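Page header: ASSEMBLY MODEL / two components / 510 residues total.
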Amino acid sequence: MLSSQPQRESKHVSQNDSATNTNAPDTIQRDACQECLLAGLAAIGINAQPGDTIDFGAIDTDGLCATLAHRIEACLDQKGWLVKPLTGSFQTLRAQGARLSIDSLTTSLVQLSWPVGGQPA
Amino acid sequence: MRRAIAVLLLALACALPSLAQTQPAACTPKLSYGASGNLWSLDFLGCSSVPAFTPGQPITLMLGTTKFDGTVVKFFPADPNNPLNQSASVVFSVPNNGTSTTDPIQAQYASNTAKVTYDGQSWTPALAEPLNVRTSSYEFGPVTSGSTEGSGQTNTPQSQAFRLQAALASSYRPPAVQSPKASLASRLEKDFTLSIDTTDQQTGFVDDNSAALGLYVPHLAVKDLFVEGRLGGTVTYSKAFHSDTSDLDATAELSGWLPILQSMNLMSSTTQLGSPLSLNLQYGYRRRSESGVSTRGEVAEGTAGYHFYVLDNYRVDLIATTTWSTANTPRTQHWYKAQILYASSPTARFNIVTSVENGSVGPVVQKVRNYFIGVALGQVFEKRAGGNQ
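Prediction written out in full:
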């Protein structure tokens, strides 16, 4: 019940990942990014809904930003997507005190992610 | 009152030259690693001259004295419309079975320096998750105690003072993503903090200064109840500058965030969220020295932090501490601080407008009430390896 540091996430990608589903790939990618974003926020205690705004200036430490980034990266990997490492980006947003909607953050993730085994756009 | 106005004007006069000058943003590259795909990212924060990296080309990463051969995966030009890509960045892969048998992520946590080389150019970035983190901050400014009307009438000898707050912290932080073979020592967080919070007045104002050493197991979680928790022990020495009172505490500590209490939004049209309720609980033993007399007893302390929003444009940051010790007289101390922040638009950042503090804290058990208003000269910076060659 009490979990400690997460182990290194597996780099293996399932054959049934969302990235190989040919139905509405843009929607699938966006859904994956939003789902992983919300999961990452939950990992640092922020239970956000799709219509909420995240106040990065009220995220208490840079360490939480690192945890948020790695949770999103690992989640997208499990769904068949790779993304630019995000720790530096989230720490910059915290330093700026940026306030961003879930929708805009999801769009940002879509633009910075690509399917595993594919080429980035 | 006149003195407070004069001090504010002096502070403004000191601040105006720096506000008038437009300082160019310094080029401070930052290196991050990803949790998957052996990916690393070099973000060129504030850098104007960035080469166009070509996917597939070789790139070298040096972590401490260990060299890794990588391959460029993707170059993202700066995109002002993408908040996660405000600066240009290059993503590259560094396999952990390349030219070195050392896992590059473990190598990062074994060093404080990094160097990235591409096509004859080199950069020395700061590490987004360095092994050792050193931070420092300071604030200096006028503070008013007692009368809220500014009439100068108060029970204390002085109603105004200059307050100095300075903090220095050094922390060894183990990685959030851990190798299964990592040793127990490398999984523990080790912290040292030095804190000064005092004024130029002998009485009537806060005088809480301390040095602390801590050892913790970080990244603990209980699903839906407790996240990013930390369990360990702390030794703290606190001393008042204007008296001979001091405390030496040895405590067990548990801290973390509680998702059950999310940020509230009062009378707001939008839902804004920051970190939920934070909690820090300590219990142990205290030795107090006062006027040459030592007293020993138990000590327990709880600190809670919380953010909430009002009318969309206001944020209130609260922090409160209650300390109970059989070595103190009286045994219980309460202290709280509320900061009110304002944002001029839905996209602007929140800035501190006023700070209210009340209660007693530190080795000098004296009730103080401070209002820290207006311009405060402050600077927060982190010292890490960094720079551009």
